[in-house]
Write a structure and sequence with these properties.
This protein is an alpha+beta fold. The protein has a single domain, classed as Sulfite Oxidase, Chain A, domain 2 (Alpha-Beta Complex), CATH 3.90.420. The chain has helices at about 1-25, 100-105, 135-140, 165-170, and strands spanning about 45, 60, 60-65, 90, 100, 110-120, 125-135, 150-155, 160-165, 175-180, 180, 190-195, 205-215.
Length: about 240
């Protein structure tokens, strides 16, 4: 009798272990591994009313550089744009060309991320950037998915390009804020391209025009002077 009870108890224990094992397997399904580092995935930005009134110096434990500390090396110096007359155009291979006011751009969903700008002159600056996703602007214009590049034109006459696929898959920002504050004219107001993982001359400032194109032979301002168009930062960044 005791032997029979012992066998029944052992069988019951095995069934219980099997059931628990099955439950644990179901409770911990396989999760998708992000295709890119978390740094390329922006956070949803807080509402304008929640933004800092003073410049923030760190974000989620990451120290930030002071906006005023960035060296000035633009081709014609800081630009002063009359925002009342400003329009951001999105043209080229699009179904609906856009001409947006500053406020119309800001009305789109905003995101933020910490990203480092690496200049070919040898300096680097890390900021908390906030702005709209360039892919949202492109979708708003109905961009041609078969296009290859996006050309950026600036108020000082500067221009450069980036691959369309890079902009879309990496959630690249068109920023209007740095370290929680509205971007100052010295840094690129109203908008700067946050071309993460790209050399500094790809970070176009004072953006006035965005053009979707298939002209892979296009070269930007510095690229026409012999700078690389491969959009790859120095190996020792």
């Amino acid at each position: 009798m005791h032997m029979r009870l012992a066998k029944l108890a052992a069988l019951s224990a095995l069934l219980t272990v099997a059931a628990l094992s099955s439950a644990c397997t179901q409770a911990a399904p396989q999760t998708e591994v992000p295709a890119r580092p978390a740094a390329s995935r922006p956070d949803t930005a807080p509402p304008a009313s929640a933004l800092a009134s003073v410049e923030v110096t760190s974000f989620k434990g990451k120290p930030l550089d002071a906006v005023s500390a960035e060296p000035e090396n633009s081709i014609k110096g800081p630009q002063r744009i009359d925002i009342r007359k400003y329009r951001l155009t999105v043209t080229g291979q699009v179904k609906t060309p856009l001409s947006l006011t500053y406020d119309q751009v800001l009305a789109m969903p905003a995101y933020q991320k910490v990203t480092t700008l690496n200049c070919v002159d040898g300096w680097s600056m890390t900021y908390l950037w906030q702005g709209v996703l360039l892919k949202d602007l492109l979708r708003k214009a109905g961009y041609d998915r078969n296009a290859k590049i996006v050309i950026f034109r600036c108020s000082d006459g500067y221009f450069t390009s980036l691959p369309l696929d890079y902009l879309v898959t990496n959630n690249i920002l068109l920023a209007d804020r740095m370290n929680g504050l509205k971007m100052p004219p010295e840094r690129g107001f109203p908008f700067q391209v946050v071309a993460e993982d790209q050399v500094g001359y790809k970070w176009a400032k004072w953006i006035t025009g965005i053009e979707v194109s298939s002209d892979t032979r296009f070269r930007g301002y510095y690229e026409r002077m012999g700078y690389s168009n491969s959009e790859v930062p120095p190996a020792d960044k």
